[in-house]
Design goal:
CATH topology of the largest domain: Immunoglobulin-like
Oligomer: single chain
Number of domains: 3
Strand order of the largest sheet: 5-4-8-2-1-11-14-13
Radius of gyration: 26 Å
Bound molecules: zinc ion
CATH architecture of the largest domain: Sandwich
Length: about 550
């Protein structure tokens, strides 16, 4: 998603206080994630019925197909919020259950063995505390929109609320017939029931979707389908009064689908719906059913910093491209754990940049990457942590510049080191191997190593699993015989970054470039050169760095 929330000042204060107290490493325990253990879901059938004003679910039934992963499973421990459950069936037979602490424990009549398939049917009703946001839109009309990141979907769908627990999903949504409903997947049917003035929509997504990407949106929308040659239909659902902006604001959508299809692989799903409504993020990338912030159209016609190609705010082009890039990275290939979140957010950040590079030109792309570097460097002054963060407890605090901006820069550096051909070949094979599934940072490393023939272990160790960035300082000496010795120092407090760095030597007679290959924090190279007027580090801006005099 596009973040609009920064980590809490309280957390930053605590970190600063701990730094003053001394070493922090022993003070933080490893975050415990809700990983798949005894069982995993394979399919969800979610049927929900709304009341007339979209203020509650008058009834809801979720059928979950699961498979056990070990023997002697006695309890299926679903995550579920506080709506009261009226019944649970296991393979159509009533089962005992208990609700406690956002859990729904279902007792099995007899212990399940490994690889046993079970069907659970859970019936409930009420007003979800979170996850399915029941509110009013800009025009004062009721809406119901899922907004689940990171682990809020269990407030309205019983599940295993972790990104790795992916499953196909069918939504059956019944709402008053003057509303429109949309959900993940392809619409299978819509049936009006004139006697009760309701309609029932059925949407089915056959590809596995992470819990946080399962969504329905119900409201009184201005809707339409974007014109243009697209591999899949692209439609929009926005507040009635903002319908006039939709086609223009979403005009980057089809070009983004085509750009990423060419760079990576065909678009993973059969449709794309673009919704404006209740999300707490700038945009939320739910599989093929993206929800953008209610502020999406604010200052749409007047905001400065406009896209030359689309004549819309650059920020709109950025968020459109970012959420669409997530359809490949985050939605189809999902982070295995929250520590791998950069595989979602760093990719969406970088691929949005690649879209800008293509449409707005290399200068705009450079400016975008500089802005990203600045955000990360500011953040890093307050908090030093690796991208692969196994400690941060609050998942919302992971929406930080390590996962977004620094993650994007890691991809940019890899592209610079490996060259476009090997880099994109590696990205394509990574995607092919892990689409409709999950991936780790090590999976990405393996794919890029195979495509490039390079050993990237030390690069990943330094950039993904450790904190910080290089702080470079250069100097030169006359080495006699028409040569100079250039020294590259790394002055950051922690260990060296060993990737090659290009240095440009500028003399009266012209420029020459040399590649320095650090083995430690100080590297020298002797070059035939007249005394330089300037020595520039990384002239193509391919390394995330600071430079000091
Ligand atoms: Zn994102």
């Amino acid at each position: 998603m596009r973040k609009i929330i920064v980590s809490s000042p309280a957390a930053q204060f605590l970190f600063a206080a701990l730094l003053i107290c001394g070493s922090v490493t022993f003070l933080f325990a490893q975050r415990k994630e809700r990983l798949i253990e005894a069982w995993k879901p394979t399919h969800f059938d979610v049927s929900i019925v709304f009341d007339r004003g979209l203020t509650k679910l008058t009834s809801a039934t979720t059928k979950i197909d699961i498979v056990t992963r070990r023997s002697d499973v006695n309890v299926i421990d679903l995550d579920f919020g506080s709506m009261p459950v009226s019944s649970v069936l296991v393979n159509n037979a009533p089962a005992k259950f208990t609700q406690h602490d956002e859990k729904l424990d279902v007792q099995l009549a007899s212990p399940a063995q490994k690889d046993q398939r079970l069907g659970l049917t859970i019936t409930y009703s009420g007003t979800p505390k979170d996850g399915l946001i029941l509110s009013i839109d800009k025009d004062g009309s009721p809406t119901a929109i899922g907004d689940n990141w990171a682990d809020r979907v269990h407030n309205w769908i019983p599940c295993l609320d972790h990104p790795s627990a992916k499953a196909s999903v069918r939504f059956t949504v019944t709402a008053p017939s003057d509303f429109t409903a949309v959900a993940n997947g392809v619409m299978e049917s819509v049936k009006p029931s004139p006697a009760t003035a309701v309609k029932t929509w059925v949407f089915y997504e056959t590809r596995p979707v992470s819990p946080y990407n399962m969504v329905v949106a119900v409201g009184r929308f201005a809707t339409g389908e974007l014109e243009g040659t697209s591999p899949v239909p692209v439609s929009y659902y926005v507040p009635m009064s903002e319908g006039k902006f939709a086609e223009k604001a979403f005009s980057p959508a089809i070009p983004a689908i085509i750009t990423f299809s060419n760079l990576v692989a065909p678009y993973p799903y059969k449709k794309l719906a673009l919704i404006v409504g209740a999300t707490k993020f700038g945009g939320m990338e739910n599989a093929n059913t993206i929800v953008f912030s209610p502020n999406y159209f604010n200052n749409f016609t007047t905001a400065p910093g406009r896209s030359k190609k689309f004549d819309i705010p650059k920020s709109t082009e950025d968020v459109d491209a970012h959420e669409i890039a997530h359809q490949w990275f985050g939605d189809s290939v999902t982070e295995s754990t929250w520590a791998d979140l950069w595989l979602s957010e760093g990719f969406a950040t970088y691929f949005a940049g690649l879209f800008l590079e293509k449409n707005e030109g290399p200068d705009v792309f450079r400016e975008y990457m500089r802005g990203n570097a600045k955000s990360y460097l500011e953040y890093e002054k307050k908090r030093r942590a690796p991208i692969h963060d196994i400690q941060t407890e609050k998942l919302f605090d992971l929406l930080n510049p390590n996962n977004y901006e620094k993650g994007g820069w890691v991809l940019h550096m890899l592209r610079g080191m490996l060259g476009d051909e090997a880099f994109f070949a590696g990205i394509r094979s990574y995607y092919d191997k892990h689409k409709d599934s999950t991936a780790t940072s090590e999976d990405l490393r393996a794919a890029l190593e195979k495509a490039s023939g390079r050993d990237l272990k030390s690069f990943f160790d330094r950039w993904i699993y450790k904190a910080g960035h290089p702080v470079y300082q250069t100097s030169w000496n006359d080495a006699g015989n028409g040569s100079i010795t250039v020294t590259l120092k790394q002055t950051q407090p922690d260990e060296a970054f060993l990737q090659p760095v290009t240095v440009e030597i500028v003399t009266e007679k012209g420029k020459q470039r040399v590649t320095m290959e650090p083995k430690s924090k100080e590297t020298t190279i002797t070059v035939k050169s007249a005394p330089p007027r300037a020595v520039m580090i990384d002239p193509d801006e391919l390394v995330l760095k600071e430079v000091v005099n």
